[in-house]
UniProtKB/TrEMBL annotation, chain A:
InterPro entries: Peptide/Ni-bd, SBP_5, SBP_5_dom. This is Peptide/nickel transport system substrate-binding protein. Residues 94-461 form the Solute-binding protein family domain. The lineage of its organism: Bacteria, Bacillati, Actinomycetota, Actinomycetes, Streptosporangiales. GO terms for molecular function: peptide transmembrane transporter activity.
TrEMBL record, chain B:
GO terms for cellular component: plasma membrane. GO terms for biological process: transmembrane transport. Residues 95-296 form the ABC transmembrane type-1 domain. This is Peptide/nickel transport system permease protein. The chain crosses the membrane at residues 99-122, 129-157, 177-196, 231-257, 277-300. The keyword Transferase does not apply. Keywords: Cell membrane, Membrane, Transmembrane, Transmembrane helix, Transport. It is found in: Cell membrane. Its main location: membrane. The keyword Cell membrane applies. It is a multi-pass membrane protein. The lineage of its organism: Bacteria, Bacillati, Actinomycetota, Actinomycetes, Streptosporangiales. It comes from Nonomuraea pusilla.
Length: 539, 310
């Protein structure tokens, strides 16, 4: 495999030229004995148009209201319809979107200049009013935004000109602006922003994207169709109509994909029938670069797992390649840090150097044992909570338990029913007696800070009250200078990796299956926020 | 008429008890819908408080139940917490699929089961052996296994039927729901065949049938008037019970074939603590169950007028 380093600008130009679309060479990843995977950002360009394509979602969206769309199915649909102020490209770069430019005249102000000539599907022009109304919805507690983490620092959002919106922050925040490239910055028309049933099957949405909302038959399917008046001609859809189905049962979904009744699907975890898909004669599997990872979230405030040395010992002893092989059928990559290389959206050299200085993913049992002795060889039991009827949880827990036994750590597995597992995140009472629990997690923007910011003191997801990096995070979120921020973030990363409040396990590439009759879908993680289906067409 | 009125009053009482039990049980089980209302990540304490107040999640149990009951009596089943849509709208679109599936499966069970049972009971000999063997196999195989096998053979292998979905329009629905209906009906049809066979065999040997035979009546007449009519009572009982059970049994089949029925809605609502939907589906299921039993009772009276005379 020849590694060809395309200059970023050229790569983007290629990706954005509809007819000249080319696959960016896949990146080889992994170190040492770890598995190597070909990870892509795009798939082969389509050669022709299609009247209709059918896509499966892992479950039916709860809503397509952008402020509550922060999950796989919701964003997979929404990304094709509702555009954000900025755009996250398949190559993990942030570009202008509905905002032509974003200025930062003072550290606590972001001024967005709205793009001229953009029209909603109903023909109404996009103005600052629409933008302000859309963003303002995140500030109303009764509407229940899921993106609150990015809006905690917002003081006010105002239309300061016909085509200009000014956001005033309570304190400088670099993540706010980056979040405008996700569904947090998605714009609906001002009229729709007031609708009570916005985003429901009866209400629908009104946005500016390359696909427009057509219909949503609750329980059955959601249909979007090409917006023929789309402003960005480079992203004019090649498929006239895209129908989403909601097959939740994995076996049924795999069967529907193999039979060709469904043209494609993104999987965020490898399905049990992955082998059948990989050997399928009707289509193929592509692995895409991803911001998603598999991690063990620490929740202990007392006992052995509250001791950073114990956590580091367990982390050092862990065979992450085995997790990839056994649990993820070889589709995952061992990780030494929570935020992997895909997050390095700036100052890559700095992050690369910092990464190389961190102990490798491979197990180091001797060092682990030594650390454990230093920690006083604790004899109390560590309890790991796992989700019931999930093979991924159970298998990882067994591997960690075996590692603990090899070290002399007693680890107990507690199964929590799937319907109660979600409470672990939101309810401290549910976490009582649980020292750690598993989760997939993703940041939304190419900045490792987006991950490490969960360790802010008092943060809702800082489950074990880890306080080692609080001051640095506040400083980093205010550091608009990239070199300064990279220096701060690598320091945070070093501390977090040594103290292991969350244990990095595996990076989880996007698993994309497409029938051979279609091609051109985005393969990488930004499919959640980028109009990934614009390139989808006949193979 | 009094019989009917009594049964309907009973229905209301059963509904009330069932709704109270379900509401109470959901309330007691730990966990709530918060993760589905605000996601796993965000949410300041103020935001959580606002959402909890908005959905009355902090009100005491009896207050919430009473409020729900008051609305339900007026025909308003409330709004789904998670989907923020009218429960009646959510259910209406799904009821069609479930009703179609249950009716289709009922037809298969009744025609298939009774036909097989009659064949075995009246013919005897080899036919009896084959029917017994086949029905044993069907009875022993759980629906999810049947479903998977049918998909592999008839959808993926032969390509005769689609893998998933409920279809739209009558013909398309029949095409889409054939495999699910067969999956749903096999075990019940086998059971019904067994009961029919035993019942017919028993009636055929009874004295009045022997007498009719000795008087030289035509065999067809004997079977219709003396065997089938008397054998029908247990058959109707079993068929009725099975059909009522189908509504609950459709949950598994709906998940295998990705059908947008009430069953899949129900299961998801339970997982998400979506009280309004759970309650509404329970009410529909209980009503259907009671109504089917009522129909069975009416059938008894038609078959054997003595039964309604007490």
């Amino acid at each position: 495999m020849i590694r060809r380093a395309l200059p970023a600008a050229a790569a983007l130009a290629l990706a954005l030229t509809a007819c000249g679309r080319q696959a960016v060479p896949p990146q080889q990843q992994g170190t040492g004995g770890a598995p190597k995977l070909e990870l892509r950002t795009v798939t082969a360009p389509a050669t022709g148009e299609l009247d209709k394509a059918t896509w499966n979602l892992p479950y039916e969206p709860q809503t397509i209201d952008p402020i509550r769309s922060f999950n796989y199915a919701e964003n997979t649909v929404l990304a094709n319809m509702c555009e954000s102020l900025l755009r996250l490209t398949p190559e993990f770069r942030i570009e202008p979107g509905l905002a032509e430019k974003a200025d930062n005249p003072t550290p606590t102000t972001w001024v967005y200049t709205i793009r001229d000539g953009v029209k909603f599907w109903d023909g109404a022009p996009l103005t600052a009013e629409d933008v302000a109304a859309s963003l303002d919805r995140h500030l109303d507690p009764a509407l229940g935004t899921w993106w609150g983490d990015y809006f905690h620092n917002v003081e006010s959002i105002k239309a300061t000109g016909p085509m200009q919106v000014t956001v005033t922050l309570k304190q400088p925040d670099v993540l706010f602006n980056q979040a405008m490239a996700t569904a947090a910055g998605a714009i609906v028309s001002a009229g729709y922003a007031k609708k009570k049933d916005l985003g429901s099957p009866t209400g629908g949405v009104m946005c500016t994207g390359p696909y427009q909302y057509e219909s949503w038959k609750s329980g059955d399917s959601l249909t979007i169709k090409r917006n023929d008046a789309y402003w960005d001609t480079a992203l004019r859809p090649k498929t006239k109509e895209l129908v989403f189905r909601f097959i939740a049962d994995e076996t049924t979904a795999v069967n529907a994909l193999r039979s060709g009744e469904v043209d494609g699907q993104y999987f965020y975890l490898p399905p049990a029938g992955l082998g059948q898909l990989q050997q399928s004669t009707t289509g193929s599997v592509t692995l895409g670069r991803s911001l998603t990872f598999w991690t063990l979230l620490g929740a202990a405030k007392s006992g052995p797992y509250a001791d950073p040395k114990v956590r580091r010992a367990l982390s050092l002893a862990l065979d992450r390649a085995a997790i990839s092989k056994v649990v993820f059928q070889g589709t995952a990559l061992p990780q030494r840090t929570l935020a992997g290389a895909e997050y390095w959206g700036y100052q890559r050299d700095v992050f690369q150097k910092a990464h190389d200085a961190i102990p490798p993913e491979t197990p180091d049992l001797a060092k682990a044992k030594q650390l454990l002795t230093e920690a006083g060889s604790p004899t109390q039991t560590i309890t790991i909570g796992i989700q019931g009827s999930s093979a991924v949880h159970e298998q990882t827990a067994n591997l960690i338990k075996a590692t603990g036994e090899a070290l002399g750590l007693k680890i107990e597995i507690k199964v929590i029913p799937v319907e109660q597992y979600g409470n672990l995140y939101s309810d401290p009472k549910a976490r009582e007696g649980i020292d750690a629990f598993f989760s997939t997690w993703y940041g939304n923007v190419p900045d490792p800070l987006d991950i490490y910011t969960v360790f802010l003191a008092g943060g809702r997801t800082n489950f074990n009250d880890y306080a080692g990096v609080d001051g640095d995070i506040t400083k980093a979120r205010a550091a608009y200078d990239e070199a300064e921020r990279a220096a701060l973030v690598t320091t945070i990363q070093q501390k977090v990796t040594a103290d292991v409040p969350w244990m990095p396990l595996n990076n989880l590439p996007v698993i994309l299956y497409m029938n051979k009759r279609v091609t051109g879908a985005v393969a990488s993680f930004p499919y959640l926020y980028y109009p990934w289906a614009a390139g989808l067409g006949a193979a | 008429m009094r019989f009917l009125a009594k049964r309907l009053a009973g229905l209301v009482a059963v509904l009330l008890v069932a709704s109270f039990l379900v509401y109470g049980l959901l309330y007691l089980v730990p966990g709530g819908p918060m993760a589905f209302l605000l996601g796993n990540r965000s949410g300041t304490p103020e935001q959580i408080a606002a959402i909890r107040a908005q959905y009355h999640l902090d009100d005491p149990f009896l207050v919430r139940y009473a409020a729900w009951l008051r609305d339900a009596v007026t025909g308003d089943f409330g709004t789904s917490l998670v989907y923020r849509q009218d429960v009646s709208a959510l259910m209406a679109s799904r009821a069609t699929t479930t009703v179609f599936l249950v009716v289709y499966a009922t037809l298969l069970i009744v025609t298939g089961g009774v036909a097989m049972g009659l064949l075995a009971g009246l013919r005897g000999g080899r036919a009896d052996g084959v029917v017994t063997l086949v029905s044993s196999a069907f009875l022993a195989t759980p629906p999810f296994v049947v479903g998977v096998i049918l998909v592999i053979v008839f959808a993926l292998g032969l390509g005769w039927f689609p893998v998933f979905g409920a279809g739209s329009g009558f013909g398309d629905r029949v095409h889409h729901l054939t495999l699910p209906a067969v999956t749903l009906s096999l075990a019940s049809a086998a059971f019904l065949a067994r009961v029919t066979r035993a019942s017919v065999a028993e009636e055929s040997g009874r004295e009045h049938v022997e007498t009719a035979r000795s008087r030289g009546l035509a065999e067809g007449h004997i079977v219709r008037r003396h065997v089938l009519r008397n054998a029908a009572i247990p058959v109707v009982t079993v068929a009725g019970l099975n059909v009522a059970g189908l509504i609950a049994g459709s949950v598994v089949v709906e998940s295998i074939f990705a059908l947008d029925g009430l069953g899949s809605l129900f299961v998801r609502a339970i997982l998400q603590r979506d009280f309004a939907i759970v309650q509404a589906v329970v009410l529909v299921l209980v009503t259907a169950f009671v109504l089917i039993n009522l129909v069975v009772d009416l059938c008894y009276s038609a078959l054997d007028p003595r039964l309604s005379r007490q």
